[in-house]
Amino acid sequence: MRQSEHFPDSVTVIEVGPRDGFQNVKGEIPTEEKVKIINLLATSGLKRIEATSFTHPKWIPQLKDAAEVIRCINRGSDVVFSALIPNEKGLDRAIENGVEEVVFVVSASDALNRENFNQSTAESLAELAAISPKAKRNGVRLRGAIAASFGCPLEGSVAVERVIDVAKAFQKAEVCEVSLADTTGMAHPLQVRDLLCRLFAEFSDLPLALHFHDTRRIGLVNVYSAWQIGARIFESSIAGLGGCPYAPGAPGNVATESLVYMFHRIGVETGVDLESLMECSRITKEVVGGIDPDRCHG
Amino acid sequence: MRQSEHFPDSVTVIEVGPRDGFQNVKGEIPTEEKVKIINLLATSGLKRIEATSFTHPKWIPQLKDAAEVIRCINRGSDVVFSALIPNEKGLDRAIENGVEEVVFVVSASDALNRENFNQSTAESLAELAAISPKAKRNGVRLRGAIAASFGCPLEGSVAVERVIDVAKAFQKAEVCEVSLADTTGMAHPLQVRDLLCRLFAEFSDLPLALHFHDTRRIGLVNVYSAWQIGARIFESSIAGLGGCPYAPGAPGNVATESLVYMFHRIGVETGVDLESLMECSRITKEVVGGIDPDRCHG
Fold first, then answer.
1. What domain count does chain A have?
2. B176 is catalytic
3. Structural domain boundaries enclosing A156
4. Which of A221, A255, A258 sits opposite B262 (nearest CB)?
């Protein structure tokens, strides 16, 4: 167990709705609506927001306005806005647009990495040799994310060793943090416990974040299980948007408002005002529901 | 902790949808549809089903067909069908109709007991002196349920001692089992852990079941927390129906299919076939959604 058994009383919540949520909406959300929601999220007390992704618009047309979003949101606050990057080109665009933190995603499953990024996991990791120093030179914080950490939609189960290998490569590239993503939504609480026990033992100096989907309604159980074992950094998505390209119609990511509610109930601080967040969720559902009625998760 | 730390690998699931779910549906579900769903639930492998409630139709008109439901369902199987009773009159009707198990509900909160049953908790418990021997004489198994075990919609928090007092009265009346209900949907996992630690220590010979609502999406976390501390009997509702008279529009009870999915994922047997259950959930949503579109929880 990473942290003491006395359960320190705060966690960090990383809001990923504007990236992971909006990229999964079928229709086009107007940029000003995205900006409005991101600003609202920031005023609710969230201190870390994944605002967009610098992926080629051919692959994710929903986020083709990445540069404009970054330019238009209120940056004067103490909130860190990050952007996902799939490769060095994404980093270049992020730097051009003054992004302070980028999230480089690599899949622990080779098949999924090829599917998503047209190259093997090893090839993606090799890019770190260019990405990491370039990010550092430009004062951009680099964060790693490991897709398919708990299973792969194409390969099925993924060996813990693969996750550890990717995390080691990230650590060598001096990322500030590594996020473990349950891409398939198939993680379960005992798997979470076991994987984290291994990883916390292996990476005592590397902050680890968790990103759970709620595809089968057990996302929050996984959050709780991770918290019990010592995890203190969680990604979630306002209104539960996003998260489930492999299970159409199913719920998406763990909803930020549910996660914050749970932590507040057990006496764990998040720094977030739950009422503002609920209002933000309501507005997000309104905006997204007007565009893509399938994506109105509760 | 009641059970060993090695976590025995099976739990008992009590389906309460036909009672707790159907009584919360706005329109009238035809009796034959109820019977169809109950029979389907039984064929999915569920061994305990709360089929209806012998409450005066003035209070719960949705279940005015209790006798007909009990008469029409397939009773030849190895499934125990129970019925809720609010008082001795309910027991009389249950006996008349050949019910083999009745659930007598008392609230740990006096205010809620008055609201629901027009008498104090003590007055309800005094009825046990008549109910218990009458049930025994008629070969009907008596089970107790404690409403507001984790908080009260009227009084707020409820002292553990109140829950213990009611459980003791039930134990004295020789009930076969006591169910602890999270009537408000406000239970949280650490509260569950603490309450169960107390109760398991106090009632080592009395089986305790848990009934959680999913009002704020943490119902399954509470189930998991209870399981971690040794609970092995859980109530849930197909399609998540029911459960939230105090939070309109919110999800209802923990959905049986989500609960079964979670337990199967962590290697805990339920005896239930998840695919049959999913199909049953789909049919239930279809039936109920045609009658009460507000009650189509996912």
1. 1
2. no
3. 12-295
4. A221
